[in-house]
Amino acid sequence: MLFPSLEDAQSQENILAIGMQKGGVGKTLTAVNCAAAAARKKLHVLLVDMDPQASLTLYFKHILKSPVKQTMYNLLVEGAAVEPIRLNKYISLLPANIDLAAVNQLFAILLATKTLPNRVLARYLAPYAQQADLVIIDCPPSLDPLTINGLGAARRVIVPVSCEEMAEDAVPKIIQTIKGLRRDEAMGANPQLEVRCILPTQYNSRGSSSPRILQHIKDHYGKEYYIYPEPVLRREAYQHAVSESVDVGAKDGELGAYWDTFVESMILQRKVA
Ligand SMILES: Nc1ncnc2c1ncn2[C@@H]1O[C@H](COP(=O)(O)OP(=O)(O)O)[C@@H](O)[C@H]1O
Ligand SMILES: [Mg+2]
Q1: Ligand 2 center from residue 94 Cα (angstroms)
Q2: CATH superfamily of 15-266
Q3: Ligand 2 centroid vs 51 CA: distance in angstroms?
Q4: Virtual CA dihedral for 248, 254, 259, 264, nearest 10 degrees?
Q5: Which of 28, 30, 157, 252 could connect to 17 by a Cys-Cys bridge, CB 3.0–4.6 Å?
Q6: Residue 273 confidence (pLDDT)
């Protein structure tokens, strides 16, 4: 496989990252259901698992059956031409496992070799992005070099924020990281990275706190960022979908339609209508 030089490692137009340093807010769920909705439109999607905990890879355990052999570790560390795993006709996966945790330390020493540590993934992902209509990177729940590389490779990022518990500093931290990455020349900048939207998740219609937290998100970030108006609802169907390695649309047509609309307006259109 021909990887571009570091200087040429631009973020590709069709690469989207799902990023938020808080765990359990629905990043992986968003990645899976966006991929499924895009696939329903007959688009070829590549899912990229950048989380050493590999929840995206494990989501598909009923399809994969045996442990994965080559992972993002082999791509990022060895430059190996890792073959994406075909999950179905339209969706493929570049998988992860715990080996990926070691990459964080490796990225940290790259600067000494004059390599741009923020842009390693951008470089290695480029040939894959040329083969796909859409690439979705599922970032880990931290602001470590793996997340920075996910953001460094992407043109757009979706930031899921839970409506279940108030996390005052969660959004400012990821925003600060994104802004820093746009101008970090020494480590490798990605000036084209755009926050596509903040996606409120886990909206609990029966709980009392969700409306208040959603309003807080709108009040504090609505001026600078687009807050997707329909939050992801907390529904058991999402858990049932995980346990069967299917997208939520297979369990609940209405929830599937939610993601169809989300993908149409937030991923396939350049500007908010
Ligand atoms: N809207 C929701 N309704 C029901 N369960 C959800 C919802 N969002 C997330 N979950 C569950 O919470 C857990 C964490 O979600 P996940 O997408 O893996 O979060 P993250 O990738 O941000 O860590 C999963 O078990 C998932 O099924
Ligand atoms: Mg996850």
Answers
A1: 15
A2: P-loop containing nucleotide triphosphate hydrolases (3.40.50.300)
A3: 7
A4: 150
A5: 157
A6: 40
The SS3 call for residue 29 is helix
Residue 122: C-alpha distances to residues 110, 158, 178, 211, 247 (Å): 15, 17, 15, 38, 27
* Global pTM value: 0.96
Q: Is 24 in the pocket of ligand 1 (CB under 6 A)?
A: yes
Nearest CA to ligand 1 atom 23: 24
Q: Residue 113's pLDDT is what?
A: 78
Q: Could you tell me how far CA 113 lies from the centroid of its own chain? A: 28
26 Cβ closer than 6 Å to some ligand 1 atom:
yes
Domain locations along the chain? 15-266
> At 180, which helix (H) or strand (E)?
helix 170-183
pLDDT tens for 164-193 read: 988 888 999 999 999 999 999 999 999 999
